[in-house]
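User: My collaborator sent over this chain with a note saying "see what the structure looks like." That's all I know about it. Can you take a look?
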Amino acid sequence: MKFMLTAAASLALVAGGLGTGVAQAEAAPGCSSTVQIGSTAYASYEGQTIASVKQFKGCGKNWAYTYVWDQFRAKRLDYYIATFVDSSANDVGFRTSAKNARELWSGGTDTLTICTWAAGALYMGDKTYGAVGTDERC
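Assistant: Without extra context I'll predict from the sequence alone. Here is the result:
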């Protein structure tokens, strides 16, 4: 019986992600039916992964999403998040978060007919850390 309880607790921890901070985003603000397109990009700081960046499509738009991992947030450093949908022409959906936010969605962009990627970065003071982009989707 003790083994079964231990096994069940272990499975619950694995299912819960062990607090790794991996983003589980499913829907952009104002759009309940988004789906991830392309790869997930990972931002790093001092050799550790600090954030995930993803691109989604839904409701006739593209969206960028950046999620700051719990391990980085636990350092209690002050930072800002930037995330946006980008194209070869220009940045098409930029938004900066409030200080020390856990996640940030860009505004939805009318860019489903062109090639885009999602980008995200963390800013601390006047320095940019972990600026990354997903693969381009056409």
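A starting point for your reply to your collaborator: The longest helix spans residues 2-15.
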